[in-house]
Amino acid sequence: MSTHKQSGQKAPFLAQTKAGEEGQASSRQATLPGERQKKVPLGAKLVVGGIAGMVGMTSVFPIDLVKTRLQNRWCESVSECVRRIRAEEGWRGFYRGLGACLCGVAPEKAVKLAVNEKLREHLAARDHDQITLAHEILAGAGAGMCQATVSNPAEIGTTRIAHPPRSGGSEPANGTKSAVGIVRELGFRGLYKGLPATLLRDVPFSFLFFPIYSNIRQAWLHQRGDAKGEVGLLPTLAAGAAAGAVAAAAVTPADVVKTRYQVEHSPYTSLHQCARAVWREGGPRTFFKGAVERMAIQAPLYGVALLAFELQKKWYLAHHQQQD
User: According to its UniProt record, which protein family does this protein belong to (predicted)?
Assistant: First the structure.
């Protein structure tokens, strides 16, 4: 009789423990959408990632334009940048270079998001369908490396279109170059000018961003997740924005050096020379010039992009489960 009572007392405790373990597993699953459920094919991930990136970039492009010109000393403050662009180029000037940018953003975001998730799935399979922090960082780094290789040519084009030559240069301040003209001028090797700086920026960005994003969502799910083990729209948006802002601030020095090195008529012949010039100009503070603007760009961009990415994957899985 006493044995029966003891088992009856232990059963609820064991049930709670099991439920807690299942809750932790489901929370980890929420941040790793493809690791235990039906996986989204790589091709579909590339498509939805590209669409998400284009929508996000269009919404924040004017801020990115101001950030680029501020970092390259075209102006001394955000308000001066806005006034000069409006006066010299009109309102359309705030979207100068958007076409070239979107041509780069679509494959960049597609590769970044799809490669990260594919690597997470592969690494999680080695860890019995769980993923460690070290493997999260490794997956993010791999995604950043692939993304930088794809996006560097488009970033050079965007930088040169968005930032006109200074007065006294060989072209008028309002001169416009097309993406095709830039490709013809630079050639294949020229399109990869500054690739080490792009890697120095994008690899750390990705290995910071993706673990922060997934762990914020996991923490939210532990506290307020629903019975299905899903994270809501606003928490996903907030997680993407927070992770984007933190990662963007951390890699701003690399972005400053990359931007100054890649602009047209750049006086620098090497990244090291460029970095030394930035240091001599104002010390550590100069390396973080434009950090606030960069955070203001990356936070909404990645919030929107990750939200769109998760929603499209969810729709894809639901649609194909109905067909099955």
Answer: Belongs to the mitochondrial carrier (TC 2.A.29) family.
